[in-house]
Amino acid sequence: MAVSILHRATGQALAFGAVLIFAWWLAALASGPSYYRLFLDLIMSPVGVLVGFGLTWSLFQHMGSGLRHFIMDSGEGYDLVTSRRTALATFAFSTIATLAFWAWILLGKGY
Length: 111
Hints:
- By secondary structure, the chain is mainly α.
- It has one domain: Fumarate reductase/succinate dehydrogenase, transmembrane subunit (3 helical TM bundles of succinate and fumarate reductases), CATH 1.20.1300.10.
- It is 87% helix and 0% strand.
- It has 4 helices and no strands.
- The chain has helices at 2-31, 33-43, 46-73, 80-107.
- The longest helix has 30 residues, at 2-31.
- It is elongated.
- 11% of the residues are buried.
C-alpha cells in the first residue's frame, strides 16, 4: 500500500517540481548569461542539490513502482511474499540508483 501511495506522490512531485524547475531553466537561459549563472549557482547550492536529490529519488521510485504495477497488471506478483519483496525492491532500486546518479554528478564528469 505504501508503494502505491508513494507512486502517486512521486508522480505529483515530478509533475509539479520538475516542470517548474525546467521552466525556470528555460527562462534563465533566455534571460542572458548573468541570470543563467544565478540559476546555476542556486541549483548547485546545498538546498538546490537537496531538491535535485529528492526529485531524482522521486523519478527512480516512480519508475520502479511503475514497473512493479506493470508486472502486477499482467496478473503476477499478487501473493503476499512476492508483493512485499517487489515493494522492498522498489525502495532499494530507487535508493541505489539515486546514490549512483548523484555520485556520478558530484564526483564524476557530470558537473
